[in-house]
Write a structure and sequence with these properties.
Elements: E1 3-12, E2 15-25, E3 30-34, H1 41-49, E4 56-61, E5 64-65, E6 76-79, H2 91-100, H3 110-123, H4 139-151, E7 157-161, H5 169-186, E8 189-193, H6 197-203, E9 206-211, E10 214-219, H7 221-226, H8 231-236, E11 241-248, E12 251-253, E13 262-263, E14 269-275, E15 280-284, E16 292-300, E17 304-311, E18 314-321, E19 332-337, E20 339-344, E21 351-356
Parallel strand pairs: 3-8, 3-9, 6-7, 7-8
Antiparallel strand pairs: 1-2, 1-4, 4-5, 9-10, 11-12, 11-14, 12-13, 13-21, 14-20, 15-19, 16-17, 16-19, 17-18, 20-21
Helix pairs in contact: 2-3, 2-4, 3-4
Bound molecules: adenosine-5'-triphosphate (ATP).
């Protein structure tokens, strides 16, 4: 089902948690909400779930205005980080709970509940755990119980607030892939809050980025990564280093960086540059001492090394090809800047890729 959020404002005293949020989710879409702590993500989810209400603005689910619709009539499944499973109830009863608390008109009989819970436990692949208590299953299994409970009411919209927070990295990867498969199979619409950017990029069709109660970008993962709409987004995503500089005659100048004229199609004036790890090339220092020093190096996937290099007092994240035995803390190196993402002074919308000019 579609979800339309129109100019939603929510204030708590002097704090504006949401300052006019508009967002439309297509039916069947998986959307991730990203943003710093306090940017309004949970408030937005609570408003969709009917656990909180906007001061102004509208929420439409499947085209229907939700203003007067209480949480339990919205047909929305919610999974929060702490799962909130009932410890004194078996896994079976936890999942059945979602059905037993439905409004009387929609409440199934006992035989139906039995059948439905069995189906759900099969769906989340833990049929053998029905009679265990939450304390007797693993974190990943508890997560599946929480999902089964949320899915029990056959929601068309699934809201997930940091659902994988308590899982270790390996289980987390498994569970999220499985969740995306489940989302596709059921044809539901899902909205996920996460602090894990990699998770958002892997799972979501589109990513909404919140900054202080406003959506500053809503686009596909690859678009937000390669074409961040504002300096805030560029700084928030990835490991880019932010540096202030000047554009003069189509060339970016950043004090303290190794001399590397970067061509950029921006008007003259102050500019903000974001150097991403792939923009920073690190090679061993040659016969001369090099212009930088390795401050930190660690192995990364795909036979690469991640490192932090220091050049003229500026620390930059960089990627280098592995096999670099020389790349240890304190080693001298040569740092070359081959590009940057640059925002001009004319407004946040003016962004350009800078490219290294050919060597003189
Ligand atoms: N019940 C409340 N009373 C007062 N202030 C609140 C309440 N709920 C949220 N806020 C404030 O509203 C703002 C947004 O909070 P919210 O929980 O939506 O942020 P968030 O993006 O989910 O943060 P986090 O990533 O830390 O969970 C914060 O400044 C928060 O302190």
């Amino acid at each position: 089902m579609t979800v339309e959020i129109e100019d939603v404002v929510r204030r708590f005293g002097a704090t504006a948690a949401l300052e006019g949020v508009s967002l439309t989710l297509r039916a069947g879409e998986f959307v991730a909400l990203l943003g710093p702590s306090g940017s309004g993500k949970t408030t937005l989810l609570r408003i969709l779930a009917g656990l909180d209400f906007p001061d102004s603005g509208r929420v439409l689910i499947a085209g229907a205005d939700m203003a007067q619709v209480p949480a339990r009539r919205r047909g929305v499944g919610v999974v929060f980080q702490n799962y909130a499973l009932f410890r004194h109830m078996t896994v079976f009863e936890n999942v059945a709970f979602g059905l037993r608390v439905r409004p009387r008109r929609f409440r199934p009989g006992n035989a139906d509940i039995l059948r439905r819970v069995r189906e759900l436990l099969d769906l989340v692949q833990i049929p053998e755990l029905a009679q265990r208590y939450p304390d007797q299953v693993s974190g990943g299994q508890r997560q599946r119980v929480a999902l089964a409970r949320a899915l029990a009411i056959e929601p068309q919209l699934l809201l997930l607030d940091e659902p994988f927070g308590a899982l270790d990295a390996l289980v987390r990867k498994d569970v999220r892939r499985w969740l995306r498969g489940l989302h596709d199979r059921l044809g539901i619409t899902s909205l996920l809050i996460t602090h894990d950017q990699e998770e958002a990029m892997e799972l979501a069709d589109r990513v909404a980025i919140l900054e202080r109660g406003r959506v500053v970008q809503f686009d596909t993962p690859s678009a937000v990564m390669t074409r961040p709409a504002t300096p805030f987004v560029a700084g928030f995503l990835g490991d880019a280093t932010r540096l202030e500089g000047q554009v003069a005659a189509g060339v970016l100048h950043v004090a303290r960086l190794p001399r590397a004229p970067l061509r950029v199609a921006l008007a003259d004036g102050p500019a903000t540059a974001f150097l991403r790890p792939r923009d920073v090339v690190v090679t061993p220092a040659g016969r001369d001492a090099g212009n930088g020093v390795i401050r930190h190096a660690s192995a990364a996937p795909d036979a690469q090394m991640r490192c932090v290099v220091e050049v003229n007092g500026v620390q930059l994240d960089a990627l280098a090809t592995n096999g670099a035995g020389w790349m240890v803390r304190g080693a001298a190196c040569q740092v070359t800047i081959r590009g940057a993402l640059v925002f001009g002074a004319a407004g946040p919308g003016v962004m350009a890729e800078a490219e290294a000019a050919p060597a003189e």
